[in-house]
Amino acid sequence: MKDKIKGISLTWLSKVDLSNLNSGEGGSNYIDVKKFKANNIDYPYVSGQAMRHYIKSAIRRLGAEGCILNEKGEGCRDIQSCIICDLFGFMSPKAKSGAETRISPVKVSPAIGLYPLDENITVDFLTRKKYKGEKYIGDIVHVELAHNLYRCGISIDIRRVSAEEIPNSSEAKIELKEYGGIDQAKIRIKLLLRALLYLTEASKQSRLLTDFTPDFLVITFQKHFSNRIQKALSIQEYEKLDLVRFESIINDLKFDDNIIIVGMLPNTIREEQKIKKILEESDIPIFSPKKAIEESVKLLEKIEISR
What we know:
The chain is α+β, with helices and mostly antiparallel strands. Helix content is about 25%, strand content about 35%. It has helices at about 50-60, 85-90, 180-195, 245-255, 270-280, 290-300; strands at about 5-20, 30, 35-40, 40-45, 90-95, 100, 105-110, 110-115, 120-130, 135-155, 165-170, 175-180, 215-220, 235, 240, 260-265, 285. The longest helix has 15 residues, at about 180-195.
């Protein structure tokens, strides 16, 4: 690749067992699955806000120094020393002067359930015991649980990691202010990539332990910042990838001289051999999801990134 890398975009599928990864509004004794409607059919999803929280928690678990929100819901806003404020941005209201903001260089999609809820949902019963008088009594809580295949994605605007775009009105241009430089940007992006292997903070894990890490992962290193790869993993029917769309998007990205790395666990979706054939014909390496992340980290160490 002749041009410097301007963006990294990832999309992945994650198959989960019975779980309630992100609760909806519900009620005092009813905990529902967060859902949306398409063609009058309900599907589950995990909000982008929840996904950001899971990724931030994973970054901290990897040992990175990152702030947590104070009682006002504000972080430290120190881009140079705080990986969380750097990667995920912030907004801090200021009296009589609007707000101090940083637009997140990391864009996170909701995790979209790809199977209809009515075919993959049940209601569990929990009992909340409490002592009243001389005996225990229990309140019954209803919890919706769903098995599904989720599609998730993130996109990294490399130019603005550990840096900030400052408008120069006198010269009518945007200038870049560095906070740690390219070396620090690479360190933080590598931590972000590795964090995807450790998404453990989904809700209800004390009773509904599940793995929410990538099972089928596509990573792109791009010379033009784009979210095109987010449309590659479309499911036609149960566990069957839309191969025509997948091949078309892969070919588009290869035509632009992007680098693509794929990680796939066996038996995640059907027609694995057809998927592998498409990738092999485009000279795209296939690894396990963990190995694909580690290969991406190694690649990031070698390549030039844009500023």
